[in-house]
Amino acid sequence: MKNFKGLLLLVVMAAVVMFTAACGSNNGNNTANNGGDNAEGGDEASVEGSVVIDGSGTVYPFMAQMAENYMTENENVSVEVSRAGTSAGFKKFLVEEGGTDFNDASRQIKDEEKAQAEELGIDPMEFQVALDGLTFVINPENDWATEMTQEEVVNIFLAEGGVTKWSDINPEWPDEEIKPMGPNENHGTNEFMYETIMEEKDFVDSINLQQEYSTLVDLVSKDKNAIAFFGYGYYENNKDKLGAVAVDFGNGPVEPSLETIGLDDAPYAPFTRPVFTYLNVNLAKEKAQVLDYAKYIMNNAQDVAAETGFAPLSDETIEENLSKLEEIK
């Protein structure tokens, strides 16, 4: 009898253990199903794969920092950021199959690029990511041209400007030839300078146009008669090698800075422009990691802008961008 009671007790205990295990298994399945729902909604579930970005050299520091931050938080996603230049980047973006997911741009997409996108069936969605101030940099030994009017600094780069020597601007300045420099036609910064600042008038014949911004930094840092233009971020990161011209737009000289760069009534507004990234919506619909990264950009744009030498966008613009992304299903 004792043996029978002992056997009965063992059977009961085994049944309890099996019931408990079954409950635990059901709870686990419920959790997995919830995770699947999150994955479908794209909010909390992990994503994996690759994101490919090319384009503007001006936007590159912003996007490279953004990518580094994102990959730290999302180890299963690889974000590749290159800097062929805005125009060269659009050629890589506007490809029927195998184009880039994003194209960074320091200008807006052109009508002919929009037409090409439509022909290829690509839906490019534009997002402002920050504000940049076109900055004119000089050699640290240049202690005479630290302040110029808007007209004076632009005339250095104009074929019709009539300026070849520093003394042409001010007789008290050195009677030495100016060495104007800037990014080449692959870059949106070149186009912004030509189309907006110079009003589509020709560059001076002596201008030295380069593909790499790092080359421009090096050239200016070694030549006291050099002057170049590019985005504020590259100056911010090379203040130990370069000086910047304070520009007088009519109310006294204004140094480019995160405090003065801005649109509308900002002191450096005449030389301020928004910078962009363009998302291939077709690919964002196919690849969860691309859409996830786009949302990450917008949620972190203001912080990363300030970290990389850009003036941040307004809260209103950020909200508008996020609303556009929420419409992508």
TrEMBL record:
Chain positions covered by the region annotation Disordered: 27-46
InterPro entries assigned: PBP_domain (IPR024370), Phos-bd (IPR011862), Phosphate_ABC_transporter (IPR050811)
Any matching Pfam family: PBP_like_2
Bilayer topology: Lipid-anchor
PROSITE patterns cross-referenced by the UniProt entry: PROKAR_LIPOPROTEIN
Keyword tags: Cell membrane, Lipoprotein, Membrane, Palmitate, Phosphate transport, Signal, Transport
Signal peptide feature range: 1-24
One GO biological process term: phosphate ion transport
GO cellular component labels: plasma membrane
UniProt-listed Gene3D superfamilies: Periplasmic binding protein-like II (3.40.190.10)
Highest taxon in the source lineage: Bacteria
Localization: Cell membrane
Molecular function as annotated in GO: phosphate ion binding
Primary localization: membrane
Domain (PBP): residue spans on this chain: 44-274
Low complexity: compositionally biased ranges: 27-37
Record's function text: Part of the ABC transporter complex PstSACB involved in phosphate import. Involved in the system for phosphate transport across the cytoplasmic membrane.
Family in the record: Belongs to the PstS family.
Record's subunit section: The complex is composed of two ATP-binding proteins (PstB), two transmembrane proteins (PstC and PstA) and a solute-binding protein (PstS).
Protein name in the entry: Phosphate-binding protein
